[in-house]
Amino acid sequence: MKKLLRDGKTILIGHSLNNDLKALKLDHGRVIDTSLIFKHGDEANFRRPSLNNLCKAVLGYEVRKEGAPHDCLDDATAAMKLVLAKIESGLDNAIPLVHEGVPEIKKSKLLLHRIPVNVPGEELHKIIPGDFTIEIRPNKKAGGKKYSAFANFKNQEEANQAFENIDGYQEKDSDYTEMRFIPI
């Protein structure tokens, strides 16, 4: 990699390259990161879209099917095709990602994370308004002290309304570089 990048003129293209460059202990000034150049709808969204979701929304195909092994050549090819699509549409023109291809069931879920294990799932009904079921997910990173859950609503509108009606505040989540909601 160092040989390819040493002239300073090479443009490095990829998806979420910050992790790769950090692991390789490389710094390069000419980078196009597909996780940063596409707008997620009209809303301010701090979450970066996955390469697979970008390909589905922009190019109309999946890089890999669920459960299929990772193939770095497929990822590199997809990233290049995404950059070419961005250039063809005009660099100043947004290619909005409106979650096309995402099943309605996934749109109607709210992710709840960092829940202390001493708070039972039933208690979440007292904090979050609306009619929903809870799907508990163990959190392996928190050493068994916290867990995550999905609040499953009947549709996207009910999930959005519940989120808007939670009494609390938002703060930047250091683990996920996105906004998280803290109930009071």
From TrEMBL:
Matching SUPFAM superfamilies, A to Z? Ribonuclease H-like, RNA-binding domain, RBD
Q: Which domain of life is it from?
A: Eukaryota
Which GO cellular component terms, listed alphabetically, does the Swiss-Prot or TrEMBL entry include?
A: nucleus
Name the InterPro entries for this protein. Answer: RBD_domain_sf, REXO1/3/4-like, RNaseH-like_sf, RNaseH_sf
Q: Name one GO molecular function term.
A: nucleic acid binding
> What family classification does the UniProt entry report for this protein?
Belongs to the REXO1/REXO3 family.
Q: What's this protein's name? A: RRM domain-containing protein
